[in-house]
Amino acid sequence: MSNNQFKKGELYSFVTGKASTAIARRLQKKFNNAGLNLTIEQWSVLYHLWKQEGISQQELCNATFRDKPSITRLVDNLERLELVKRVPSENDRRINLIYLTRQAQKLQEQSMELAEETLNEALETVPAEKIDVCKEVLQIVYDNLK
Fold it and tell me: How many CB atoms are closer than 10 A to CB 118?
């Protein structure tokens, strides 16, 4: 028996993540207005490096749910912007570990403030209990498809 409560045409909107896209667009606009030369995709990589730097590109792929070519392109661009540097692993010369530069560390506080501000705007009129239910449902959906 199907548990699908969506009418035809609704599923595409649900799957594409209209809310996620709207949040990303708003955050990108805030980055641009603040003069941060950074895309949301680049910021997502930096975000994971702020949590733990010195990880491999494969670990970044896993953390950001991106494929290897996408991460390679993002790290290349971040390297050009002098926000990250690749350092060969001492254990395996085939692997580069990604480290933040001082410039990237300086971006952390401002960009995280903008991200928090954006999320607060997005959730402004949503009751806390509905946020909890939403997080729970989305985790179940993710776990079902893992």
Answer: 20
